[in-house]
Structure to design on (301 residues):
């Protein structure tokens, strides 16, 4: 039985009683001297389609979490879960059987949190790959300062570590930068104002407020109740702003959300392109809802 879990779980390798299959590296014959042709998105008769590198259009129908389940050392018979080592002699047998099933069910894509390292060892691996990189969330984006060089270096480290082993695989469709980020406008507003005065993210919020209210503190007070700030100079050094009942401050808050989303997608596009100019940037996977400001910001990237 193959576990097809759609939850955001980490990829786990199984332990085997029999001989181990090879887990690392690209599948035989998939490392090309020159980059393989890319997947593409094209518009035909007013409809956008996804195209194979060979030129045929297709639907990407994928399964997340195609992995080997519980480790032998952590398997709990009182609360059992799927464990590939109970059914196969080694990891490659599991991978080959899993790929056969997925193809027979007409799936075309291996989604995030799958055991790409093992599945790519199989000669019959022809499904698309769409890994989730977790670039932003690992570095604290969009909640921490997205202009801080330390955070930017962390994003690059995360991207490089995951992209380089995969980028030459001809079945790599593209990357998701993150999964279900917390694009909560009120939380982002609060966390940004709590950052130090040196924060690039906080400085841009103060600049947005000054431009919106034309440096008129009294106009700002129509929409916000300040705490520990009695004017622009004090707000620049610290303090908090709370929405005032009956005001229109939510409009500025949502505008700031769009500003952060613009910064996030620009960073993700540039970082991914630095290490892979071929595969598609698929954006980030949203939760069960999304903010229009965030979706609009993603369109340019």
């Amino acid at each position: 039985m193959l576990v097809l879990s759609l939850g955001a779980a980490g990829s786990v390798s199984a332990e085997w009683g029999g001989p181990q299959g090879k887990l690392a590296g690209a599948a035989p014959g998939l490392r090309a001297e020159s980059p393989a042709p890319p997947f593409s998105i094209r518009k035909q008769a007013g409809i956008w389609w996804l195209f194979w590198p060979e030129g045929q259009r297709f639907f990407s129908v994928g399964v997340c979490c195609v992995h080997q389940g519980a480790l032998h050392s952590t398997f709990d018979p009182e609360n059992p879960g799927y464990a590939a080592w109970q059914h196969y002699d080694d990891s490659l047998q599991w991978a080959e059987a899993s790929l056969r099933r997925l193809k027979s069910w007409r799936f075309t894509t291996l989604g995030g949190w799958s055991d790409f390292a093992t599945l790519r060892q199989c000669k019959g691996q022809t499904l698309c790959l769409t890994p989730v990189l977790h670039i932003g969330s690992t570095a604290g984006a969009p909640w921490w300062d997205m202009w801080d060089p330390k955070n930017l270096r962390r994003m690059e480290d995360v991207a490089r570590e995951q992209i380089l082993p995969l980028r030459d695989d001809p079945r790599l469709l593209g990357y998701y930068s993150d999964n279900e980020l917390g694009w909560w406008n009120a939380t982002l507003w609060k966390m940004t104002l709590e950052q130090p005065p040196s924060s690039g993210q906080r400085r841009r919020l103060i600049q947005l407020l000054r431009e919106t209210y034309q440096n008129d503190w009294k106009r700002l007070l129509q929409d916000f109740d300040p705490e520990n700030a009695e004017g622009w100079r004090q707000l620049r050094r610290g303090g908090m702003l709370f929405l005032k009942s009956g005001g229109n401050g939510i409009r500025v808050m949502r505008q700031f959300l769009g500003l952060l989303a613009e910064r996030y997608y620009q960073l993700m596009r540039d970082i991914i392109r630095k290490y892979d100019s071929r595969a598609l940037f698929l954006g980030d996977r949203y939760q069960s809802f999304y903010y229009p400001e965030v979706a609009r910001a993603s369109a340019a990237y």
Remarks:
- The first strand starts at residue 40 and ends at 44.
